[in-house]
Specification:
- The chain is an alpha+beta fold.
- The chain folds into four domains: about 90 residues, Roll (Phage tail proteins - horseshoe like beta roll fold); about 80 residues, Phage tail protein beta-alpha-beta fold; about 80 residues, Bacteriophage T4, Gp27, baseplate hub, domain 3 (Elongation Factor Tu (Ef-tu), domain 3); about 60 residues.
- It is built from five helices and 21 strands.
- The strands form four sheets. Strands 1, 2, 3, 4, 5, 6, 7, 13, 14, 18, 19, 20 and 21 form a 13-stranded mixed β-sheet that branches. It has a three-stranded mixed β-sheet with strand order 9-12-11. Strands 16-15-17 form a three-stranded mixed β-sheet, with helices on one face.
- α1 runs antiparallel to α2.
- The chain is globular.
- The two termini are about 30 Å apart.
- The model has no long low-confidence stretch (mean pLDDT about 95).
- It comes from Apilactobacillus ozensis DSM 23829 = JCM 17196.
- This is YqbQ/XkdQ domain-containing protein.
């Protein structure tokens, strides 16, 4: 049950307890470079309290810290209720800036932009991979870090992400927690939906480079096995090479893109009994006979998005998992 749900002005010590006034409480986390979101409805109260943008919202479930953030939007309707949207501290990573990033690691860049964003932060996972110096002109902190994280992943196969642990923004590595929780037919699972798609799949990748001096163009092509092309048809993706790329780099880029794009896109959505550890970046075990029959046996899967619904004592969570 919700044990703490409060609202306060940033410059005031007065704290309002809104546990009995709030309903339709929903908390969302994602690994896709976005702030954690808390939305809820709030009955109007007298006693001089009115919610305002910038107010600090704190939520705890069974005394466990869940959300610490700030009101960014509210609506007030004729039935005298507020609809409130609050974001955690990651919202300030949407701030734009122009920075020169020296040769540095992704963890060093995280610490730099976190200081610029003015938030509390902690580097939970570090990388020793040095990234090239870069000029980040008029980019959000999210954009600056997403590029650094992608480059680090390509070089080391280690995938980092950002997470707001209550009021502290953390740099973490997938998976942060390998949960022992089993979500299945006989435990926690309420429903599921599995999607398999080749909408964005490519089994032929061509990198093209225009030559200004020779007024022509060169290219490199990578393709999947003949059996894959026969099975799916010819699915071609074309990309222009960087101006300074040499033939070896163009060929390597074609192979790299083919590896990324030749896969079928699989998305599993699950609705389960709520648990506070089922958040984006953690991994849980999925076990279902119906899923096994369509080729998805018992597996530990990474949670890419979670939406928690707190409703009195009824607590459920919607999960999106990387298959």
């Amino acid at each position: 049950m919700i044990t703490t749900f409060t609202c306060k002005k940033r410059n005031s010590s007065k704290v309002w307890d809104i546990r009995e006034l709030a309903y339709n409480v929903k908390w969302e986390t994602t690994t896709n470079f976005a702030a954690g979101t808390l939305t809820f409805n709030l009955l109007e109260v007298q006693e001089g309290f009115v919610i305002r943008n910038g107010d600090v919202i704190c939520l705890k479930w069974n005394k466990k810290k869940i959300f610490y953030g700030y009101v960014f939007k509210y609506e007030y309707s004729s039935d005298e209720t507020f609809s409130v949207t609050a974001y955690d501290a990651l919202r300030y990573f949407k701030n734009q800036d122009s920075l020169v990033m020296p040769i540095s690691t992704v963890s060093q860049r995280f610490e730099k932009v976190a200081k610029m964003a003015g938030v509390k932060f902690k580097t939970v996972a570090t990388s020793s991979e040095k990234l090239k110096a870069e000029v980040c002109d008029n980019k959000s902190y999210f954009d600056m870090l997403s590029g650094a994280i992608a480059k680090t992943k390509r070089a080391t196969n280690k995938h980092f992400y950002l997470y707001a642990n209550y009021n502290v923004v953390e740099l973490r590595k997938f998976p942060y927690k390998q949960l022992k929780l089993v979500i299945g037919d006989k435990s926690l699972m309420e429903s599921f939906n599995l999607s398999r798609s080749i909408e964005n799949t490519a089994n032929v990748v061509r990198i093209i480079k225009d030559s200004k001096k020779k007024k022509g163009r060169s290219s490199a092509t990578a393709q999947s096995s003949p059996s894959s092309i026969k099975k799916l048809g010819r699915l071609t993706y074309i990309e222009k090479a960087k101006e300074k790329a040499n033939p070896a780099q163009i060929k390597a880029r074609a192979k790299q893109l083919l590896k990324q794009k030749s896969k079928e896109e699989n998305t599993l959505k699950v609705t389960a009994v709520g648990h506070t550890d089922l958040v984006a970046g953690n991994a849980c075990i999925i076990k279902s006979q119906s899923l096994k029959e369509v080729g998805l046996g018992t597996k530990s899967l990474l949670i890419t998005k979670s939406t928690h619904h707190f409703n009195d004592r009824d607590y459920t969570v919607d999960l999106e998992l990387n298959v």
